[in-house]
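Second attempt. The first submission of PH domain-containing protein had a stray character pasted in from the spreadsheet, which I only caught after the job came back as garbage. Lesson logged: always re-copy from the clean sequence file. Corrected sequence (110 aa) follows.
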Amino acid sequence: MYIILSIGILFTLSLLLTTNYKIKNDKLIIRSGFSKIKISINDITQIKDSNMYSMEKNKNSSCYYTSTAYYTMPDRILIHTKDNKSYFIALNNAKNLIKKINKINPKIIY
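This time the job returned cleanly.
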């Protein structure tokens, strides 16, 4: 009984602590836990590597963050958009995501 309960809890935690993305209709859709963010790839102006582990929402600007599991070493990137929003994303193999985004919008600065 406890084993089944433990497996259920671990499975639920793994879903909540995972960051995934997909590209659909030239939009980047990022899911992390219960959060879902959609970013138009044509609105992305810059992508930068980051050494941060989290990003607080700034009261004076429109900055968003996604959560990640701190015990892993995912790639961390910042995505900046035309409307001065910044998105902090931590996920495995971010270089693959950057390649896919650059195929759609090669004007993005990296």
